[in-house]
Amino acid sequence: MKLTKQEEKMLNGKMGDAVKKSMEILVALGEIYGADRLIDVSSVQVAGVSYDNLGDAGLEFLADLAKDGQVKVLTTLNPAGMDLENWKNLGISEDFAKKQIQVIEAFSKMGIITTCTCTPYLVGNLPKFGDHISWSESSAVAFANSVLGARTNREGGPSALAAALTGKTPNYGMHLDENRQAQITIEVKTKLKGTSEFGALGHVIGNKIKNKIPFITGIKEADLEELKSFSASIATYGGTALFHIKGITPNKTKKPKEKIIVTKEDIELALKAMNDDIEDMDFVSLGCPHASLKEIEKFAGLLKGKKVKVETWIATARPTKRIADTAGYTKTIEDSGAKFACDTCMVVAPLKGRFKTLVTDSAKSCFYGRSKNNFKMRVGTVEDCINAAVTGKWKSNA
Amino acid sequence: MIIKGRKISKGNAEGEVLITDQGISFFGGVDPNTGIVTEKGHPLEGKSIKDKILVFPQGKGSTVGSYTLYRMKKNGTAPKAMINKEAETIVAVGAIISEIPMLDKLEKDPFSILKNGQRIKVDATQGTIEVL
Fold this sequence. Notes:
The structure holds two protein chains of two kinds. By secondary structure, chain A is of the alpha/beta class. Chain A is built from 14 helices and 14 strands.
């Protein structure tokens, strides 16, 4: 890989230890993946924020980098292991909170905006078509590449952080035109509506194609929330960083000859696979990926004048909640007994053993609820989930 | 016998080979406090990778695995060096941030020339290994 004189200086430690370590990471990745050079990025999203995943060693690594590291471009954070303000009310221990706050302080010291959300594109970290960026968080990577038309590989926490501290990333993979072409056509033969059905579609396609790039036809319309849910699900069950939906996403691609058909039955089977045969439940979590303003308005409408019987979380970015505060949605939701979980979500919070059965509209939450926390699962529409929250029993209207 | 490879993370080490033809997930698959492989059904399940020259095809699983390697290095449970068939992001980044010497793409297939318990010298900076 060819480096400029300035980049050589950065690699040799002339610009400080954090820059040196970052350049070592980026150059090694560039060599592994055959990049010709480093390119500038305009935006970074850093994952690896929850103390539950980082542990003391991760915290130490971040504190070391924060000694002389400063971000060069707009950088935001993935969800943390707890709501940074309201953690006590959500049952987080003092010890965990203390460590989690140290993690956030290290990031903050480096100049990172500590909004802690998996939907940075909803709170002002919004790249435009064609921008080179370095994002971790698989759902945001799929959304940025596919829906926004920006360009990023699926970065891990340290490689995204290295990009933030240098403003650079190696030029390979999703940054190059030739790697962004669809590899398989998916013909959807059924009408889909809502976050849970789009999540089920991601489950079906992800399981079938793994990390291939699909060209999806047969979807007439999809709103922001449905695309957000689909991005999370296809990245979780498959591993793809990019998808194309005919008539909806902006990237150009040829239509591949190899074709898979998705039927109504496939969607029903995926929903069935995500549901355990259980009626009693003790936890409802909505907002995976983090709820948009439109979703919060919908939750407020459904919860108005009602009381929830079980622990109910609405995960969202703090700036989104601030707007909900002003709009009055927060009061309606909190009057019902449901709680906001800002800065965090059920995927990264330390929840193992606290609950038995999780109800959600999110296919991604289903995967992590099972694999990380051993929960029994119920996945349905937002209406099904809120109904379960207020009655304490699962009953699908589907 | 000196065999050439590609440097991923610089440094030198000498030690005993522990080899597996299966990928390793450091996050969730290895106990960072002991260095023992915990992944169910893995050929190395129950074995410690601490202070070994760990030879495996490549990493797998969560990207948090990079931090797990860093944690192991701090705990004194990390391998002395690592050799991959072909490196991927998680282990490569983990090796760099933890300063564990690492090579990949040896000019000869590591699974036909290296055996468990063999002593070898790794010079990742120069990109060579030597079977002692």
